[in-house]
Specification:
Layout (H helix, E strand, L loop, with lengths): L1 H19 L3 H26 L3 H31 L13
Helix pairs in contact: 1-2, 2-3
Length: about 100
């Protein structure tokens, strides 16, 4: 049960960071923190219920998050090279 509280706190911290941060890198890290909190809750429920379904889904989420990191960082680097900023306030329109 303690792990669920930790998971909720991590998710809330990630949501706060995603909503209040100004740079794309910090928003990206906050989203990753939220994904890890969801993984922790999946694994906790899996262990509490005695089934492996939550752990299998958590492995899939980890694999998808790894692909997301590769694509997301590539996009952030491409935007930085073109606009020379990662501030989300200045990146509202993605027009050339």
């Amino acid at each position: 049960m303690t792990y669920l509280v930790v998971s909720a706190l991590l998710f809330a911290l990630g949501a706060y960071g995603a909503l209040t941060r100004r740079t794309a890198i910090l928003v990206f890290l906050s989203v990753e923190l939220m994904l890890n909190a969801a993984n922790l809750s999946l694994i906790t429920f899996s262990r509490l219920l005695g089934v492996l379904d939550g752990q299998v889904v958590a492995l899939f989420v980890i694999a998808i998050a790894a692909a997301e990191v590769a694509v997301g960082l590539g996009l952030i680097i491409a935007i930085f090279r073109r606009r020379e900023t990662t501030s989300v306030d200045e990146l509202r329109s993605l027009r050339g």
